[in-house]
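Encode chain A's predicted structure.
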Amino acid sequence: MDSKDDTYPGIEDTLSLDRFGTYLVWAAGDRNGAVALYTLNTQLSESLYTPLHMLEVALRNRIHQVMGKVHGEGWFDMPEHQLNPVQADMLAKARADLAEKGKDETPGRMVASLTFGFWTAMLGKEYETLWQTTLKDIARREDGKGLRRKDFTKSLGASRTLRNRLAHHETVLHWDLPKHYGNIMQMTAWLSPVAAEWCRSCARFDELYPETGIPLAGPMEPAE
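Encoded structure for chain A:
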């Protein structure tokens, strides 16, 4: 291919040859095709930010609302609600972050400062009993029926991994993105129907994802 026909000449030097090489393989060596795939990856990543944002906010606030009603607003400091060993460290880091910013520690600020990992840990197998007694009230099916803890965890872990990949600007085109988007929207609807409605009106995923899918010459790592 004549270099004058290349789109965005030299962009691979900025992206790094390793990063751009993934897309070049997927495009079967077609440089312009690789640029197009890289562009699509960033656009789809952007479109997934909105539903992932709402899922995280809805999950943490519903857990806090339900747990606070039963155990008080400082429920997260109770040892019985720190069954996953990493949660104590996450709480300490949240407190340190608030102190560094010169902000007073309040339950609301703690909830907002805790990472997505803390909230997904609250739905781990260690909390099956808590789910049965309290956490089950964070969400309902569309028909009003209750949910099992596993109804969340089977999709929530993958959504967290996807979120982390997007945060580090990694490739996701080889993932089954329509499936993950659907799972994110489903969990959000269980937590808050109005939040899901907002997502559907704002998110651009459906209009960006090609109807025919994304043909790749061959992924360089296992897809999710």
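The chain has one domain: 11-208.
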